[in-house]
Write a structure and sequence with these properties.
Length: about 425
């Protein structure tokens, strides 16, 4: 496969952009090689600067649930853009967006728009602190809630991929208010809460983790967190930046039947435009300015192009009959095909999946937390990634990320992927 233009662009990019990229995992640093510079994408496929076509399992890290350049979304943006790209004043569209989200997501009376998942999570933590009058919060090792200082402690995604143990620039003071536990270890959470009685404002969690590969909550884990939060006056924050509107119209809350106090959303609700949001019950959300004194703001928040893109996508997700069943079926078909070829290969592996999230770990033991994800043979994953890329399949460039299945994938695409996995495994053994 010729990637000469990507190579040229990467060397040019490094002259003016740190590492040649605007977000670290894109650099292919841990898997090695040259990151592909993309030109366009449509449906299930992305095309790089050299014109190579790839079946896409990143889907902009989540939002392209219906595939790239989804026609109604593109048209809605085109129709809206001539009315101006930003007002800095309220619009009716923002109300429609908030009402649509409320009609889909459980436990959301009020919702505030922001510009990224990072902002959403950062603001939710500030609100939880303001509401409870407590400073500390618990997050889980390997979960990623964006790049705000307080979250860069034992974080997943790029922080895990690059094995950054301590992030320079995050002060010890800030980090000391972030308490961490292993995912799925309820006893450890209980012990931490007991050791910090009345000091913990919230527990924030990816209800299905996607930033250390795909890791599922074990039965009773999220329920246990819910009970603990109720008993100890802490808020349970679900970071649904990946899972929201993906696992079900009402996200992980609906799919797993657990109520959160606050919920954060991100990329999905902008259909690929820069958006995030946090919401919850009125009793908590009314502490946000201008109703309350917990300050949070944004010049571009509620941006009309981001709103119309997200609104159009969410409406399709809400109204397309059988969509979530179709996503589950595609994932099940892929998983079964992967299982068959991985079993034939005969080396240890684990597949985790729920809804349209899936990942493979080259591991002998179950992968249910960050330690087990990190203990897998991730060097093997890196070779696997490149073997797949050569066969036109674009996987996340790290074992510490989840694959996303879009509804644009055809059975032929899934079959091509399964065949590519069989060939890649043979190549890397
Ligand atoms: N939370 C989760 C679960 C995420 O996966 C991400 C990004 N991958 C974020 C928060 C941060 O979102 P953003 O990159 O839009 O700031």
């Amino acid at each position: 496969m010729i990637q000469a233009k990507s190579e040229q662009l990467f060397s040019r990019a490094q002259q003016s952009i740190p590492g040649g990229v605007n977000s670290p995992v894109r650099a292919f640093k841990s898997v090695g090689g040259t990151p592909l510079f993309m030109q366009r994408a449509e449906g299930a496929y992305m095309y790089d600067a050299d014109g190579n076509r790839y079946i896409d399992y990143i889907n902009s890290w989540g939002p392209m649930i219906l595939g790239h350049a989804y026609a109604p979304v593109v048209k809605a943006i085109q129709d809206k853009v001539a009315d101006s790209t930003s007002f800095g004043a309220p619009t009716e569209l923002e109300i429609e967006m908030a009402e649509l989200i409320k009609s889909m997501a459980p436990n959301v009376d009020l919702i505030r728009m922001v510009n990224s998942g990072t902002e959403a999570c950062m603001s939710a933590i500030r609100l939880a602190r303001g509401y409870t009058g407590r400073n500390k919060f618990i997050k889980f090792e390997g979960c990623y809630h964006g790049h705000a200082d307080c979250f860069l402690v034992k974080a997943g995604s790029g922080v895990a991929t690059f094995n950054i143990q301590q992030v320079p620039g995050v002060t010890a003071g800030v980090a000391s208010d972030t308490l961490t536990c292993a995912y799925n270890d309820l006893d450890a959470v209980k012990a931490l809460v007991a050791a910090h009685k009345d000091e913990i404002a919230a527990i924030i969690i990816e209800p299905v983790a996607g930033n250390m590969g795909c890791i599922l909550p074990e039965p009773g884990f999220l329920e246990g967190l819910r009970t603990l939060c109720d008993a100890e006056g802490m808020l349970l924050i679900f970071d649904e930046v990946m899972t929201g509107f993906r696992l079900a119209p009402g996200g992980a809350q609906q799919r797993l039947h657990i109520d959160a106090d606050l919920v954060t959303y991100g990329k999905v609700i902008g259909a690929g435009m820069p958006v995030g949001a946090f919401g919850g019950r009125k009793e908590i959300m009314q502490h946000i300015a201008p109703l309350g004194n917990v300050y949070q703001a944004g010049t571009l928040s509620g941006n009309p192009l981001a709103m119309i893109a997200g609104y159009t996508l969410l409406k399709e997700l809400k109204e397309q009959p059988g969509l979530y069943a179709a996503l589950d079926e595609k994932t099940a078909y892929l998983r079964q095909g992967l299982d068959t070829v991985l079993q034939q290969w005969g080396q240890p592996y684990v597949i985790n999946s729920l809804g349209s999230m899936l990942s493979i770990h080259f591991s002998e033991q179950p992968v249910n937390d960050f330690a087990s994800a990190a203990a897998a043979n991730n060097g093997r994953f890196n070779k696997f990634f490149h073997a797949m890329l050569c066969r036109g399949v674009y996987l996340p460039p790290s074992a510490f990320e989840t694959w996303f299945i879009s509804n644009a994938l055809s059975t032929a695409d899934l079959d091509h992927t399964i065949k590519a996995v069989a060939e890649s495994l043979a190549e890397i053994s």
